[in-house]
Protein: Citramalate synthase
Amino acid sequence: MKEKLYLYDTTLRDGQQTQGVQFSTAEKHRIVEALDALGVDYIEGGWPGANPTDSAFFDEVGKTRAVMTAFGMTKRAGRSAENDDVLAAVTNAGTPAVCLVGKTHDFHVTTALGISLEENRENIRASVAHLVALGREALFDAEHFFDGYKANPEYALACLREALEAGARWIVLCDTNGGTLPHEIGAIVREVIAAGIPGARLGIHTHNDTEMAVAGSLAAVDAGARQIQGTLNGLGERCGNANLTALIPTLLLKEPYASRFDTGVTAEALKGLTRVARMLDDILNRVPAKQVAYVGASAFAHKAGLHASAILKDPTTYEHIEPGLVGNRRVVPMSNQAGQSNLRRRLADAGLSVEKGDPALARILDRVKAREAEGYSYDTAQASFELLAREELGQLPEFFEVKRYRVTVERRKNKYDRMVSLSEAVVVVKVGGEKKLSVSESMDDCGNDRGPVNALAKALAKDLGPYQSMIDDMRLVDFKVRITQGGTEAVTRVIIDSEDGQGRRWATVGVSANIVDASFEALLDAVRWKLIRDGAAS
Amino acid sequence: MKEKLYLYDTTLRDGQQTQGVQFSTAEKHRIVEALDALGVDYIEGGWPGANPTDSAFFDEVGKTRAVMTAFGMTKRAGRSAENDDVLAAVTNAGTPAVCLVGKTHDFHVTTALGISLEENRENIRASVAHLVALGREALFDAEHFFDGYKANPEYALACLREALEAGARWIVLCDTNGGTLPHEIGAIVREVIAAGIPGARLGIHTHNDTEMAVAGSLAAVDAGARQIQGTLNGLGERCGNANLTALIPTLLLKEPYASRFDTGVTAEALKGLTRVARMLDDILNRVPAKQVAYVGASAFAHKAGLHASAILKDPTTYEHIEPGLVGNRRVVPMSNQAGQSNLRRRLADAGLSVEKGDPALARILDRVKAREAEGYSYDTAQASFELLAREELGQLPEFFEVKRYRVTVERRKNKYDRMVSLSEAVVVVKVGGEKKLSVSESMDDCGNDRGPVNALAKALAKDLGPYQSMIDDMRLVDFKVRITQGGTEAVTRVIIDSEDGQGRRWATVGVSANIVDASFEALLDAVRWKLIRDGAAS
Structure:
């Protein structure tokens, strides 16, 4: 029989304290749905009354499997819990559970609140009792608890006892400024339990200011706490909160946690974790961080040649878990340290089956190495890598030939005396024995100048004769440029991400001292890859 | 008397296993310089012989305060250490220390290497003895040690003893696949020490696959290990290595580490940590992650209203350390009082003294906000920020006016039937009432095309009349381009770093949908800033 370990998600409340993050009501509902499917026990939805979005969210929120929780603060001194309008706004949200933050650090009581130590204890007691009288599950968030306990353990514990005796289901120990190390958290939680607060009523709330919020949460669980508060992707004030996206797989897949605890997240739900993490990035319009534990795109990427060949023999050699358990997957990228086994695997991913020992493998590796020394990067630009390999394997049709191009960028005053820019590109290609001249300018449908690369992309894709229909659904979605060292000279590397109507997305690379040339090379690769994928015949 | 704790940096070797990371030799030298100034004890420079960049790096590397270390692997079975060419390439780099990775997990010995357990022990012994005979400091990287120890502790320990008895200064316990939790690391390190391997000879090498590499490193130190291996910004294979940028401040500022250990990093060097972290991101052309412990731009950002007002009363309420200790700074919402005092400090940095309460402060804040919403970034481009502020303060002379420009990029076959590119730029300025037309092309002294921005920079700086002598010593040293969101449209942001003969280096920013326009704007700012600094009169 496993012991229950509770997961409390505060993405919608503390997570929203992240710089630049502000969820809309609709986004909050999407996140609630994902959290509920994942199987967390509590969802903290926000602070009703603190802002219009949070209030609107609670008005609309439907039934959830998880216990929906409203956040607020203990009543202020000098009025009763029943007559505190801030507290009333919180309880009026009607959630089954309410979490109230309060002070337990004597210094904060006197400095930040400016009230007596006894008044603060009374505020905690009366607020929790008020929630209980309303029939709500009460949680008490003990702000700055660890610092408070270090400064004045008697007072900090007395505050916890007020909440407990007033009927709080949970006492949550918060390391509000994130400065407490895991070994201290473990020791203090043990002391709190020894002082008579049951571990089954204790929660832990950590921040990542020393990059140890996950370890600190586990230290508290090791010491006896039975609720973990955290956020998806570790969102939160400053360096963020404890990252549930990292904690959940560890709790389900690693010992002693896996055998000992039941978290409410099933093995099946865990397979959706990577998708949940990416969905949140999508809502935030962020590029997902690659090196994130368990769910990052690089979490199971094997770049070193020695690692990659061992992985082919047995994945457990360099993988601590099977990537599919968290809905992630293995990546064996190309780099100048990669071996032939790595290369064959990558070619297979591109649908190119090459026999072991084929001399083309060595040629491909040599060309990749030489090109990377010039500044190319095939780790990211899988489509350009595939074209290079196809060329060495004699499987790259020449669909068309670019004879020349010219781009002009001009900036001058228009007739209204405003400075305006316009770019024009001419591309000359030979396709099916026929010479085609195309010209485009950089103006978009709204009359805005989109620059020379845009003009060039349009001119190149304007008339490719028999192939035209295949590239009509292509579009350039991202464009990254950096200056790098190619041999002894600084060169420009351009990576272009393209997308098509079938939802395919591919990356190509171009390198040149001339940024327009580098861009054109990457554009050409993007078009050629698309033609191959769509099965064009040369 | 404090005990010595050694820091071993592997940014240049294991850090380069990060997907998409490939340092040039010049970049490696810049990183070595920063690490040496920071005060780490060992710098692992790469694997000599594994690729041309690493070999070139060791050929050129000069004297460092830190012990320069070459990485390689133990000799292969069936040949002597003296006759192993892979090992010879490593020792031939001539570094004072050499770190060799070898197997200690019986399963890997038989599966990945396919040799007998005894042969593997012999490979370790003979390789370390060979290094010692050559007079080098020997380090043995025990790959997969924790998994190996769990599977077969006797064999894993026997491998360590081979290295130790052959004269290895350090035995580094590696959690290669990143799956071992801190409590297991602590327990196993204790057992290894109890089995007779002295803690003073033990190093720890962790990976961040469960987001606990930092905690795992500290657990090993708590158990007695005295060397920590890690990387700047936590670069590394998969989820990265232990992040030295987070570990170093914890070791220097937090107990029991601060009182107990001497790491070689001084309090003064620690103040450069944020700058080192940002420099590495700059080399990688990455947007620095904001929520990173200690050095992230949000690490001391206080968004919650309650927090921000408490911070004004007493910063220790929500800050676990003083941000300046790691060279970072506090960020409070621009809208309030503290926002304005921040701004005044930044203006003072630029030599602009503005009185408290000056209405220009609010105007500058508004313009910065509006421009940042369009895609500008004044965090990095201090020189452009200064020009913006000067404009609001009425302290920006108009040295010259750009009337128009035109750039042409052409690519076609030359008379030898090779594709060649050439760019040409015409810039028309009005300076001192006189109109000046300048034209330049993108060819450098060696006959190579350097692209349109180069042509434009040359044309702009070709004839500025009375100011010409002041800009003759300017040169463009770096050029970064990123696609970003400006309002609803994707725009291009260009950051240009310039340098002059007096060793000054400054950054300017330009934003436009058109990359050439964005570049031109940043170039113009660079010239104007230089003229102000050199005291040009309009």
In short: The mean pLDDT of chain B is 91. Chain B touches chain A through 108 residues (CB under 8 Å). The two ends of chain B are 62 Å apart (CA to CA).
